[in-house]
Amino acid sequence: MAFDLTVNGASHSVDADPETPLLWVIRDxxxxxxxxxxxxxxxxxxxxxxVDGQPVRSCSFPASLAIGKSIKTIEGVSRxxxxxxxxxxxxxxxxxxxxxxxxxxxxxxxxxxxxxxxTDADIDANLTNACRCSSYHRVRxxxxxAAELMKA
Amino acid sequence: MTQSRxxxxxxxxxxxxxxxxxxxxxxxxxxxxxxxxxGAAWYEDPTAPEINAWIxxxxxxxxTIRIAQTELGQGVWTSNAMIVCEELQCDWSKVxxxxxxxxxxxxxxxxxxxxxxxxxxxxDPKGGGEPGFGNRARTGVAGIPDSxxxxxxxxxxxxxxxxxxxxxxxxxxxxxxxxxxAAAVWKAPVGELVAKDGVITHRPSGRTTTYGKVAAxxxxxxxxxxxAIAIKSPDQWTLMGTEQKNRDVxxxxxxxxxxxxDVRVPGMKWAAAKSxxxxxxxxxxxxxxxxxxxxxxxSAIRFPIPDPKLTRGHVFxxxxxxIADHWHQAKAxxxxxxxxxxxxxxxxxxxxxxxxxxxxAALDEPGTVRVNVGDVDAAFARAKKIVEATYSTPxxxxxxxxxxxxxxxxxxxxxxxxxxxxxxxxxxxxxxxxTGIPEADVYLHMCHLGGGFGRNGNGPQAEQAIMIANANRxxxxxxxxxxxxxxxxxxxxxxxxxxxxxxxxxxGWPVALEVRTGMQKDGFGPDASxxxxxxxxxxxxxFSNHTTDFHVPVGTRRGVGQAAHEFYRESFMNxxxxxxxxxxxxxxxxxxxxxxxxxxxxxxxxLDIAAxxxxxxxxxxxGAARAIALEERGAETGGSATISAMVHTVSVSRxxxxxxxxVDVAHDQGFGLVNPLSVKKQIEGQITWFYNDAMHQAVxxxxxxxxxxxxxxxxxxxxxxxxxxxxxxxxxxxxxxIGMGHDRGTSVQSAIGDAVFQITGKRYRxxxxxxHDLSWS
Lengths: 152, 777
Fold this sequence. Notes:
Chain A has helices at residues 22-29, 84-92, 101-114, 120-126, 136-151, and strands at residues 2-7, 10-15, 48-51, 54-57, 70-72. Chain A is of the alpha+beta class. Chain A has a 5-stranded mixed sheet, sandwiched between helices.
């Protein structure tokens, strides 16, 4: 059963059950492996992507709900790795193992779209992704830095 | 042949069915020359001749440095390359890291000139530390004695400690041979040449050349006496000791970094596995016919309990795997497939409550006395005051973010394994044992790991994948565990109990200390931080271990035994200080000053600096408190050691909500840190790691199985629990560090307990604190 998805601005025909979680369509059918699997129950946020600008946990989000919408994954953040959020992340050397960071960056991007100059309290309330290495200290600084860069 | 990932994605954007990463068909056939996709770092045969086993310099001056340890967030990808680059004197911006070949490590011996540790051990700045190479065996523990890369495994926070001197030697040997090659070209005495940033200059004439231009000749130019090459001492370092950003971070912010889970091989099928939830259990029956016709499903296979000889003696479970075109299809079929288990009755009878009771009962037995100094019983008989406390810690998994997985292709004469693995030689050994294919024909392609924390080599994901692939020869199989399965296929930090008793004199100083610790008999680190000496002075000291026999496989989780033991020790020191009505910082300081431990002055310095940084003694608002603790490893050795002290400023709201507000860290830098930035990141991360342990995490055993098996019931701290302020100050000491990737930040555990006591008057001694009512009025 084929259906069309728009990912990072390009349209793809996917030959899969539309109830397949979006994560697996992205990773296994479209070959975009930057988005990660970790808990499978929408707890950790490693699989976060944007659907029409909203962050969703794609491991528990049926692909059918994304049909006709615009999906953005980590691969779509920039062509060259130099989106201000990526620049900020590199400046702070934020990732450790890095496995959660695609989801972390997608959640942070959504936060910055909603609140361009977030306070620490805004970050605490909105960034609910889990990082087992606890890179949080640098992630927080990187979000503030990205906000600065995006303002400029 | 190779296509970059971006090209591939671009060219396939209109396609309907796309495999992600692409390996050319020859990959699985030809030698070891498996071309990695963009973003992967596994070993590639070089296109230019290597200078030595660690270094390849291309004509364009690009320097490839081979790394024998697995990058799992600790920064080894960068720190080990810095060590080589420091001596090589190449241009750091032209360095790229790549995994060393595990196969080569198995078939080649280390060069002679790397075998001698320079200097006089852990307290000699020209020394090489004290590498833990002794008695290595290929099964179960370590690797291959004196293999070319010396230590192709990643554990015990030792990648820098053990590797530094021979990585420095590798860089220095290559530099000297590059100079010899340039000298031969110029027909000049080598003594007239200098190298800097990859450029060789003939001083008298000012003539220059680059490493890339003479590398091919250098590769053919042996050094006449490599054993005479000296390495730099820390005062001569120029790159080491500076903060360097991690080389792989740019790949980690674009999603390009290839972890094991991202490996795609042509023709690959996916496997989902379910093993018996009670350790030691096995499959009685399963009904594949019930799911055979589900979409994408190919087959099912039963896998036995992995041979404990291949899993460090641990008994995991047998189970069933379903193989399908896509993993979500395999998982869906497995969830619906009826499976009956055969469970050993003894194992199914274990519950946390009866296990904890058994541990506490063991404390009343004589146990094994490890240390017995002075006359403990006599001292207790004349004590003015006796303080006793019993602490406990739960079973804890590592729960790294990347669930266990491996891709394996078995043919009749070769095995290929793509895996993030901290113990690649053990995995190669397992593959040879399971398939009957000679180990020389087992090729392991190392991937970055989505977290480590002691995980790999501590679970049977490789063995399961090899068994499944061996039954499907010719088809590459990617086994991926669900999160729930990851909680089963792992070893745990052993549940532990400790009873500490102290006899105090009239001034509140301890005259005797008795420590009894209990854990299951195969638990790791039973002696940690209590063996040899108590760290705090007592004239009479007795320490004993008390063991039980449980079925849960236990292994080396971050911090090993140290994490629990420092919780016991530092919590009790706080209790003694309060009982003596003395300041917990000054009480510790005095008791360390009274010892004759070799590094007592460093421990005192750590306490003093941390206290000063924190504003120790200055008033805090109601509902906030400070607590101090010592963290050390090797304080009794007189050799390598790592010493830190932390002051934690903690608030507890009236509703009982805890927040770690601020952490002041005084940390030993020994003779020098290789990459202080990575050290800071490790400290920051471990503070919240141990906050998690202290506040939230526990796995209970219910009818023999692990109960909490995903993140809704095994909570992970988020950014809102990360301390807003972490201040780290390094101080120089006269020894090499042991390592710092796993037992810093343990003090969060005792500190929160003491802050809760100071604020609420309630003393809790069993982790995690979340299970208690921490409110106050």
